């Protein structure tokens, strides 16, 4: 089908410079339990360089978004315990652009707070929410998708970016879409018919075969007025609480109001609070993303992001000089203690070596590392979690 | 066959107290490369507690021999680098009973030096040589075998103790024997027909089936005069060198003579220098040992010596509180760094965790750990060896 958006697409792809009135919101939370002992409660996944790029996932997220927002257009939302580490990793981030949550209240409260604070400061702007701990490759394609999503957001949609599903993964939720949106500046955007939870393997295969489904990477681009309007309708108490906090945020009342209101806020994901009900009402758009994406959920997916260290598919995250492998094809070694890690005769083994805890498992069991964390917790080894 | 030695046997088994004029020689050497990274060049196998008994192999060796020799009847031969560690582990050992070798010259030089020094000090006494890094269970049976071996030695034999071969091991040499010796006080001693090198699996099975073969644990009991006489005949230069050193040992000339003579001594095992040729001439006897014995050659044999830590045959050498296992039956974990070692979904895995080096392998590959050490050496990681 030929349509006039073709020209807009070309325009979007060649656009350079920040998008006017666009702010990125980066919720930095989540323990990354399946990446233990590399990822810890006090040093979660987003604070680590998991790709060997020299930049942590958080830094890479900011690097990726800054060209779209400009230096002042990044707002980080994180737990009070992580503020110092985040600011140390992001020395260019203005103090007022770091929102500290007194306790975790899930993604709706985090993103809603950022939206409400930005609305107080800047009025009706477009925000885009992007997790701090995802890995993305293909910056031009990423920027192009975000620019289209901003265009859809300006037209009043809650816009998300759907990731090309390269395999029938059961680790991700899916977005089902059809029908071109027809919004200027968002030529590839489609109507979202619905969101799904993580499917079973058979369902995932059906999704992939149908061509109608993309992975949900939790990226939401929306006008503050639209987001807060939906929130007022769907979750009025949460909306009112966040608005109250946001009004006090840049005043001397912040701490008092936070202490009063924050603990009572509903814990709910933005997917359930807004994306799903609004999609049912036809208010959600999806821009197909053609960039590489991974949420680095476990050591097996981490391995997939690393280059092979030999001709047997072995991977090392760290100094390869600290690893000595013999007959260990496909092994994944994270030498993070400075010690020599030697592996003899174990294919597909995963060895994660940190100064106070060691994990030895297999790539096939990577999703079950949470069991180890649970067992350590049951043994009161909280200082290692 | 009924023979009068029956009564002597009963006498030997019930004998108590030190054996008059009997000295134990403990050559403490050998890196225990297949137990790396637990065993190191600078802290070899014999300096470690490998059974969880609370005593190192060296200490347990002395504990085992002292009842037979008395406190002053133990002579240790070790490298100069290990003298301080040995003396720290054996505070009761008299300084003059530690012979320091300037460099490794194999077992004939070590045992021959001890024999020559003891001959200078005490004349023609019986010595028994026992490795510092073997594990033995069944003290009464051990003492009984040694007492018989001493009796055979007094009769002029080079007496060895043959270990009941419980499996067709290819890791040990074998002793072939037949025909009762008929020496008073050594009722079970037999003539040795020959020694074998480590056999292949088929040969080992034939050995076991024949009933004529026992494992060679390298234990030799012999009069100093007999040993030095054989040495003078078989290896006259080595004999003369050792005699020269021994004459100077307790004088102010020791260091000068050692520096002159030691470096030129032939490197040869006592098995090749004496046991084999003398056996061919009918001069070697063997006493069947009925005690448990192992040379703890690798992590698989180490595992066999440890009690199971669960009902799945998993073993821990160290603090079980430092180990967290899920679905890892038959695993062998040595938590020697104080860190938490967690294993998920790997049966029969071997994890040896030390402060500066980690080994992950399988029980089946335990014999090949030397490959890792060789690879580390090739990478100039000498400080870890």
From TrEMBL, chains A, B:
CDD domains: GDP-M1P_Guanylyltransferase. Residues 321-374 form the MannoseP isomerase/GMP-like beta-helix domain. InterPro entries: GMPP_N, ManC/GMP-like_b-helix, Mannose-6P_isomerase_type2, NTP_transferase_dom, Nucleotide-diphossugar_trans. One of its GO terms (molecular function) is nucleotidyltransferase activity. It comes from the Bacteria. Keywords: Nucleotidyltransferase, Transferase. Gene3D superfamilies: Spore Coat Polysaccharide Biosynthesis Protein SpsA, Chain A. Residues 24-305 form the Nucleotidyl transferase domain. This is Mannose-1-phosphate guanylyltransferase. It comes from Myceligenerans salitolerans. The lineage of its organism: Bacteria, Bacillati, Actinomycetota, Actinomycetes, Micrococcales.
């Amino acid at each position: 089908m030929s349509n006039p958006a073709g020209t807009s697409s070309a325009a979007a792809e060649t656009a350079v410079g920040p998008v006017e009135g666009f702010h990125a919101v980066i919720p930095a939370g989540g323990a990354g339990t399946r990446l233990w002992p590399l990822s810890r409660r006090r040093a979660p996944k987003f604070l680590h360089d998991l790709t060997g790029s020299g930049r942590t996932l958080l830094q890479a997220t900011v690097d990726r978004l800054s060209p779209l927002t400009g230096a002042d257009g990044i707002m980080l939302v994180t737990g009070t315990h992580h503020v110092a580490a985040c600011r140390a990793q992001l020395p260019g981030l203005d103090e007022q652009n770091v929102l500290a949550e007194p306790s975790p209240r899930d993604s709706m409260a985090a993103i809603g707070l950022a939206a409400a604070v930005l609305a107080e400061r800047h009025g009706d702007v477009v925000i885009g929410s992007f997790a701090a701990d995802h890995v993305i490759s293909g910056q031009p394609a990423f920027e192009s998708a975000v620019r289209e999503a901003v265009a859809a957001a300006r037209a009043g949609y809650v816009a998300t970016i759907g990731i090309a599903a390269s395999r029938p993964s059961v680790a991700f939720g899916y977005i089902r879409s059809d029908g071109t949106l027809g919004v200027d500046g968002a030529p590839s955007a489609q109507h979202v018919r619905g969101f799904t939870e993580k499917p079973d393997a058979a369902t995932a295969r059906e999704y992939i075969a149908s061509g109608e489904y993309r992975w949900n990477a939790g990226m939401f681009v929306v006008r503050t007025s639209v987001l807060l309007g939906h929130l007022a309708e769907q979750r009025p108490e949460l909306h009112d609480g966040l608005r109250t906090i946001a009004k006090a945020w840049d005043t001397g009342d912040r701490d008092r109001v936070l202490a009063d209101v924050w603990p009572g806020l509903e814990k709910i994901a933005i997917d359930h609070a807004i994306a799903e009900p609004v999609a049912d009402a036809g208010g959600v758009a999806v821009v197909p993303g053609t960039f590489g994406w991974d949420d680095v959920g476990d050591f097996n997916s981490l391995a997939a992001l690393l280059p092979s260290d030999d001709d047997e598919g072995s991977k090392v995250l760290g100094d390869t000089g600290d690893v000595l492998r013999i007959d260990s094809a496909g092994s994944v070694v994270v030498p993070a203690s400075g010690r020599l890690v030697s592996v003899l005769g174990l294919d597909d083994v995963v060895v994660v070596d940190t100064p106070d805890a060691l994990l030895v498992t297999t790539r096939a069991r990577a999703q079950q590392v949470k069991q180890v964390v649970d067992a350590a917790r049951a043994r009161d080894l909280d200082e290692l979690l």
